[in-house]
Amino acid sequence: MNARVVSLTGPTEGLSLRSRAPSTVRRSVSDRSTLDVLITGASGFIGRHLAARYLGEDLRVGLLVRRPSAVEDLRDLGATVVGTSLFDTQALMESVRGCRTVIHLAAMTSALSRNDLFAVNGQGTRNLAQACRAQSRPPHLIYVSSVAAAGPCAAGSVRTEIDAPAPVSNYGRSKLAGELAVAEIADEVPTTIVRPGIVFGPGNREMLPMFQAIKYLRFHPVVGWRGPQLSMSYIDDTVESITQAAEYGTRLPREQMPAEKRLTSGRGVYFACCPEYPDYAELGKIIRVHLKRPWAPVVPLVGPAPWIAAGINQIIAYCRRRPDAFNIDKVREATASSWACSCERIEAEFGLHPSRSLADAIQETVAWYKHQRWL
What we know:
Number of strands: 11
Helix content: 25-40%
CATH class: Alpha Beta
Strand content: 5-15%
CATH architecture: 3-Layer(aba) Sandwich
CATH topology: Rossmann fold
Structural class: alpha/beta
CATH superfamily: NAD(P)-binding Rossmann-like Domain
Number of domains: 1
Shape: globular
Order of helices and strands: EHEHEHEHEHHEEHEEHHEHEHHHH
């Protein structure tokens, strides 16, 4: 998405991250007293791209991660690295002290149990929000959620931010639990929620198996006959959406109301996706073209077959004690009616549009995979 900004439908609230004059002096990584932004989950796909973006703008950036060794390269660029978890409440209090903006990305997309998902995505988010709340001047909290928290919509329609959330997977329910946790105290902590679609691009491993199947197996397996329409978001556009929401986004209402009402108020929640909604079959065809595979037929997995396969894979993952992305929870999402979500609000308020077409974004992703010898 382009960085062009037009007049907002809501007010510009809070201090701009970019309001200070750029400094030409390298700051000490121990200077945490006035961090401009703290990013949780910075070792992940989105987090690394987001951290690099802010560091390139000479902002004081803190990274909250479980394994500091995973972001040594970002530390070398000037980031402050905080090694802790979302369950060390005292460390969280210290980490957010003095921060102007906190961007919460840390999450589990798959787990060995439903309880694990809710512990991290629900309670972990609550712990962070409470740490922000305890500050004398709470930071602007940006919670990066997911379209899975909103849930699917009817085929042929497009979900908007004022629609009541109705997730169908445990992952979606756990991310909604995180949304409710931050919405509950939005009267005390200025909060904005961003719901990206399926995020892809250079560095992404979650979509890599789809590319590998088309290239090496020369077919494209799809749950159902075509699969639901999808909301996609190229990584550059996702990062732009988050940074614009952090700087210009409206907040959830501060008026006294239930958390559920705050989420559907029309303020403080943004879908981040492109206005193209391919289904899984169409997505495979786009990938096939850029992999130069003229023949890679769609293989529909119908009836109980995908459920049985996912169940077996889930049992194997449980025995190995390593979560796998192909599980029953993901089949629930793959058999939904449609995941098409509107990008009209984020376009209208921030003037953002996709930086490239979906086909061009897929082409750049393929080129990166090949350059890195992932394909």
